[in-house]
Design goal:
- The chain is mainly alpha-helical and 136 residues long.
- The protein has one domain (5-125).
- Helices cover 65% and strands 4% of the residues.
- The protein has 4 helices and 2 strands.
- The protein is globular, with a radius of gyration of 17 Å.
- 38% of the residues are buried.
């Protein structure tokens, strides 16, 4: 069975987010579940328990949408990309203060912006329905 570009990206990004969510718990246990401080995943990305749960939910949504088909995957990739763009902007705006409940840091922001661009571009540009030209 052939999978669309959006499905492949949904499965791929979804698997990465689930893995990151699970691995995040290995470094965030000594920190508050939600708060401005977290453990460093791969020595760079700050995560806490809430951040890990968000990664797991995003991964599950992407995988579930990919399994549901091209149209659903295309929509969810686009929406998740838009949400990550917003998360990147809000994360930069709130900085590292007490409103930073996900323990976001600069490398997180960069990764969120990269994910946003990739997911939105794929969601909006790939797997467009083709309409054959009408023959007169």
């Amino acid at each position: 069975m052939s999978r669309s570009v959006n499905q492949l990206v949904g499965y791929g990004f979804g698997a990465v987010y689930v893995l990151v969510g699970l691995l995040g718990f290995t470094v965030s246990g000594s920190h508050a579940f939600a708060g401005e401080h977290g453990g460093l995943l791969l020595g760079i990305f700050a995560v806490n328990g809430l951040h890990n749960v968000v990664h797991l939910l995003v991964g599950a949504a992407l995988i579930g949408a990919a399994a549901a088909g091209t149209a659903v995957s295309k929509a969810v990739n686009t929406v998740v990309g838009a949400v990550y763009l917003l998360v990147g902007i809000v994360g930069v705006a709130i900085g590292s203060g007490e409103l930073n409940l996900l323990a976001l840091n600069a490398p997180d922001h960069a990764l969120h912006f990269a994910s946003a661009v990739a997911l939105m571009v794929i969601g909006l540009a790939a797997d467009r329905a083709r309409h054959p030209a009408a023959h007169v």
